[in-house]
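I'm stuck. Protein, please.
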Amino acid sequence: MGKKLSAWLFVMVACMGLLAGCDGSDKAEAPVRKSAKAPVEILFWNPFGGGEGDYVGQIIKDFNESQQGIVVRQLRLESNEYYVRLSTALSFGKGPDVAVAHADRVSPFVKAKQIIPLDGLAQLAGLDFSHIEPTNRNSVVYNRETYAVPIDTHFHMLYYNKDLLAKAGLDEDEVVSKLRHLTPQEFMDFLTLLQNRLPGVQPLAVNTPFFQEPFLDMYYEAGGELLTPDMKHAAINNDKALGVLRFYQKLFASGLSDLNDKTPWDTFHNGQAIFWMGGIWEAGHHLKDSSFQSGITELPSLFGGNKQWGSSHTLVIPTYVTKEKQLAAMAFIRYFSEVGSLTWGEAGHVPANSTVQNDSHYQNLPYRKLFLESSRHVKLAPNTDKYSALYTVLSEELQNIIANRQDPKKGLVDLEQKLNELLAS
């Protein structure tokens, strides 16, 4: 794949000098240029910090060194301000030439005609959409046109501290097996046993700053839905959601999880929590630390099913980007999908490119076959251009329920009402 892509990149770079007469064929001959042309520089916006940012930086470095006609510069933005900045840039027509967008954030950009369909560019570039997992690709298709290239699926797994399990006198394999067959009450009983054996250590770190994610993990396990099939009404005020909220409230009330933990990912990595329902994007960070012995297993099926929350990072090209930079951006996108995804997979994400998924380098990474299996159970967001606003309301109201120890029945009534008001607007 690498030699074929390098040859294509050489042709593509030459094509950018002419902006015509190129069909993206790997066998096409590069036009002879009369004089050296300065490389095309494109700006790549993304929200990846920490360990993820290091992997993206490596992908950009590798791409820039793989050819001489395109230079990718990146602008990393804080995740909590990323979409505000991106939306503003797209509205004013000045900003990135290629950008990351979660699949569930693409729809409003399509509706506003702020990003371009990529089918034509992909064909010119030789990017084969049939190599993108169908679930991922379908999440960014509107009116039979593909508006983004998915690069991954990401979701949660259950991380555990091997040293702490051993200190509690438990066998790792037996614990992993046991977790597959527990009810919510049995799971809490098990955490209580750990609490008694290891006082001062949090049995289970829960992502309270982004509580909507662990809530949706268990709610989807229970078979819940956010919206009705026609996506016109909310469908969250029900016994399934109530059972999940009461489960988490019991965890917090009994001290099995710390409601006030603002950085549970660090709590786990620092050896202060036995279990952590964390993102697969943390796998590289946790597993590469030789001083920290951690393991990973699937989320326990406490509520009967195996569906869980998840999302997908995609790459998009804004409408205002010039033809020359569109070609350059697509060259980078293809490289990211077909080559960079191996590096991205080292961070923990499951590549959306099926060819990369089947690559022995990826499959031989720790726990990746388990990641692939778990990715089949991901439930992506409803495909509505109001999802971003709905998700914000969901996040705020769920946070209010747990932080203020609100009656979950009343909280769900209020939540569903606010979601319906938004859907009706």
